[in-house]
Amino acid sequence: FVTRVRIPADQAEKAENPFDWKKVTTEDLMKGKRIVIFSLPGAFTPTCSSTHLPGYENAYADMKALGVDEVYCLSVNDAFVMRQWGLKQGLPEDMETGNFKNVKLLPDGACLFTRGMGMSCVWDTERGFGERSWRYSAVINDMKVEKIFIEGGGITQNSGPDPFEVSDAGTMMNYLKEAKKQMRAVCEHPHFQPYQ
């Protein structure tokens, strides 16, 4: 990912722009962590702005309490668009990093992560979009997919509808609660011995 980050405050006073470019790898974001990522077709689009992102923002603290280290929203947009969208959505800004305090916005401007996940689609005839991400959400546990929810049962090129039924925050919360409950049952089993 190529994103924008705030430069240190002592340098920002002399700088023309308080942001600089930074390359962030998937390892930086996911190695040794359990994260939730949800991807959507585009910043500023109706469902993404009215429901998808706000749902995760509202559930952020609850997800963290269920053993999630971080929550990321990914879209095939550039860093400038993602930042402005977050500000327009009223997300609280992290003044040290330049991202946001709760849900972190990830620009996948070159569509590299999206292609790597096998979630690339094109909606050129339906919406005038070039290559974008299909709508999905996932739990990634130490660089491995623990659970994934893909809308519409799979990718549809030039889809007429934009399905939004399983990648929402409510579905993710239900999964996280059930996973925690199952883990608790395993740990409380009389024959359970922690790995050493």
Topology:
Layout: E1 2-6, H1 9-12, E2 19-23, H2 26-30, E3 34-40, H3 46-65, E4 70-75, H4 79-88, E5 104-107, H5 112-116, E6 120-122, H6 124-127, E7 131-133, E8 136-141, E9 144-150, H7 169-188
Parallel strand pairs: 3-4, 4-5
Antiparallel strand pairs: 1-2, 3-8, 6-7, 8-9
Question: Would you give an account of this structure?
Answer:
There is one protein chain. The chain has one domain (2-188): Glutaredoxin (3-Layer(aba) Sandwich), CATH 3.40.30.10. A hairpin with a 2-residue loop joins β8 and β9. The protein is α/β, with parallel strands linked by helices. The protein contains 7 helices and 9 strands, in the order βαβαβαβαβαβαβββα.
- Which outline best applies? globular
Q: Compute the number of helices.
A: 7
Largest sheet: 5 strands, mixed
Counted beta strands: 9
Q: What letter string, H or E per element, gives the SSE order?
A: EHEHEHEHEHEHEEEH
Low-confidence stretches: none
Reading off the top of the CATH hierarchy, the class is best stated as Alpha Beta
Strand order of the largest sheet: 5-4-3-8-9
User: N- to C-terminal separation?
Assistant: 35 Å
Q: What is the architecture at the second tier of CATH?
A: 3-Layer(aba) Sandwich
In the CATH hierarchy, the third-tier topology is known as Glutaredoxin
CATH superfamily: Glutaredoxin
Mean pLDDT: 89
Please indicate the percent range of residues in DSSP E strands (runs of 2 or more): 15-25%
Give the class from helix and strand content and strand pairing: alpha/beta
Helix content class = 25-40%
Number of domains: 1
Radius of gyration: 18 Å
